[in-house]
Amino acid sequence: MDALPLHFRLDGRSCLVVGGGETAFRKAELLAGCNADVTVVAPAIDADFDDLKARLVRRKFTESDLDGQVLVVAATDDMSVNARVSELCHARALPVNVVDQPALCSVTFPAIVDRSPVLISVGSGGASPVLTRLLRERLESLIGEGYARLGGYMGRTRERLKAAVPDIGRRRRLTEDFLRSPGAEQILGGAAEPDDAWFEAGVQTTGEVYLVGAGPGDPDLLTLRALQLMQQADVVLYDSLVSDAVLARTRRDARRRFVGKRKAEHSIRQEDLNQLMVDMARAGDRVLRLKGGDPFIFGRGGEELEALADAKVPFQVVPGITAAGGCASYAGIPLTHRDHAQSVQFVTGHPKTGEVHLDWSKFAQPGQTIVFYMGLGGLPRICENLMAHGRSAATPAALVEKGTLEDQRVIEATLGTLVGEVARHTVTRPTLVIVGDVVALHGKLRWR
Ligand code: SAH
Question: Under CATH, which number does the domain 324-445 receive?
Answer without folding.
Answer: 3.30.950.10
